[in-house]
Amino acid sequence: MDLSPAELRLARERVRGATLVEGDSTAPLPFDDRSFDWVVSHLVVMLLGALDDTFSEAARVLKRGGKLAFVFDDLGRADGATYVELMRAGLAAAGREQPAHFRGAADARLYDAAALETFLEDVGFRTIAHHRFAVGMHVDADDLWAFMHASYPIGELDGHELDAAKRAVLARAAEVQELHIPLQLVIAERFA
Ligand SMILES: C[S@@+](CC[C@H](N)C(=O)[O-])C[C@H]1O[C@@H](n2cnc3c(N)ncnc32)[C@H](O)[C@@H]1O
Fold first, then answer.
1. Does any domain span residue 8?
2. How does pLDDT run across 166-185, given as a tens digit for each residue?
3. How far is the CA of 1 from the centre of ligand 1 (A)?
4. Ligand 1 centre and the CA of 154: distance in Å?
5. Of 40, 47, 157, 185, best ligand 1 pocket probe by most atoms within 8 Å of the beta carbon
6. CATH code of the domain in which 173 resides
7. Per the domain annotation, does 10 fall within a domain?
């Protein structure tokens, strides 16, 4: 599921045979109670603000003993700052809104392991794994643009917006030699 038809088009090209649904993860899910073994979310939850409804819905559609796995980035926080600075510059030049985690509006419980565990328990999950890791890559300006160009939310732009974002990113990209993207993976089991 994704909110964006453009991102779903990309997914359709890359994942043959999957059922893809346009929808909002902060709204009730269009799926029956206890109908899934796994709910997996990759690089979305830090974009959503308060996660109470989203995780309650994940619990509702999972079978008892089903698993929730989610990956999110820490880019809105200090150690991802260089990449975020470039993304912010590109989006601003394109006249686009900044995503929630770039505005400091992500759910703060994501960044406090104890608070996250308590929150997950309140909505019916037992945390069974929580890992912090990072991807790092050395880049030159063209490689950097190629990476950002394919990444949400810059990847959604086209035409003049994309040109404006590219100019703004490349104007600032010279000082970036390495991208460091801190990530977290959480796996939790539905117990109720
Ligand atoms: C960083 S991309 C990750 C895309 C994909 N999950 C992946 O890993 O390649 C973030 C995605 O979150 C989607 N998104 C943002 N807000 C959303 C919402 N409220 N409901 C569903 N999807 C949303 C965006 O459209 C975008 O495709």
1. no
2. 999 988 887 777 777 889 99
3. 8
4. 12
5. 47
6. 3.40.50.150
7. no
Q: How many domains does one find in the chain?
A: 1
Closest residue to atom 5 of ligand 1, CA basis: 42
Token pair in block for residue 82: 């260089």
Residue 9 CB less than 6 A away from ligand 1: no
Q: CB under 8 Å, gap of 24 or more: what pairs does 140-145 form?
A: 141/170, 141/173, 141/174, 141/176, 144/86, 144/169, 144/173, 144/176, 144/179, 145/169, 145/170, 145/173
Residues 24-50 have pLDDT tens digits of: 999 999 999 999 999 999 999 999 999
How far does the centroid of ligand 1 lie from the alpha carbon of residue 2, in Å?
5
